[in-house]
Amino acid sequence: MYRILLVCLGNICRSPMAEAVFHDVMARRGLASMLQVDSAAIGRSHLKEKPDRRAIACALSQGYRHIEQVRSRQIKAQDFLQFDLILAMDESVLRALQRQCPQEAQHKLDLFLRFAGHEGEQEVPDPYYGNAEGFAKVLGLCEGGVNAILQKLDLQR
């Protein structure tokens, strides 16, 4: 089984939205037995909280029900060993991960959109201080990124 960890600052907006998209796509394509996806935060400010209400509303409006199951957690040392791929939503999160990650696991780290081969933006913008349009933009980036990652990993069914 291949394991992917999605990481943002608080694990209440971007990474839970990406996780929800992954879980929906995995279910539709019958990939649940091949892939494990989780999300985490580099910060501690929202531990065990549900995603932001705007992230939940945006995801649910597009049919991504898994978002209601996500609870924020902070990345742990064992995550760097357990996961095959650890994808940061922006450069500041990636730098924080690089500082925490053991040298032997540094190769697992990348930006979510860069790893996906996204043309243009390389960072998923943090919508927390914005409005509903920002959350919709993030969801669109997550949808494109998830599909590209699955294709890149050749986990299509």
Key descriptive features of the protein:
157 residues, globular, Rossmann fold, 41% helix, alpha/beta, four-stranded parallel β-sheet
Architecture overview:
- The chain is 41% helix and 13% strand.
- Helix 2 (53-61) packs across helix 6.
- The protein has helices at 14-29, 53-61, 79-82, 91-100, 112-116, 132-152; strands spanning 2-8, 35-41, 85-88, 109-111.
- It has one domain (2-152): Response regulator (Rossmann fold), CATH 3.40.50.
- Strands 2-1-3-4 form a 4-stranded parallel beta sheet.
- It has 6 helices and 4 strands, in the order E-H-E-H-H-E-H-E-H-H.
Indicate how many domains the architecture comprises: 1
Number of helical segments with 4 or more residues: 6
The geometry reads as: globular
Please report the first level of CATH classification, the CATH class.
Answer: Alpha Beta
Q: Count the strands?
A: 4
Largest sheet: 4 strands, parallel
* Derived structural class: alpha/beta
User: What is the strand arrangement across the widest sheet?
Assistant: 2-1-3-4
Estimated radius of gyration: 14 Å
Low-pLDDT segments: none
By CATH, the superfamily comes out as: Response regulator
Strand content: 5-15%
Mean pLDDT: 95
CATH architecture label: 3-Layer(aba) Sandwich
User: What fold name stands as the CATH topology?
Assistant: Rossmann fold
Helix percentage: 40-55%
Ordered list of secondary-structure elements with their pairings:
Blueprint: E1 2-8, H1 14-29, E2 35-41, H2 53-61, H3 79-82, E3 85-88, H4 91-100, E4 109-111, H5 112-116, H6 132-152
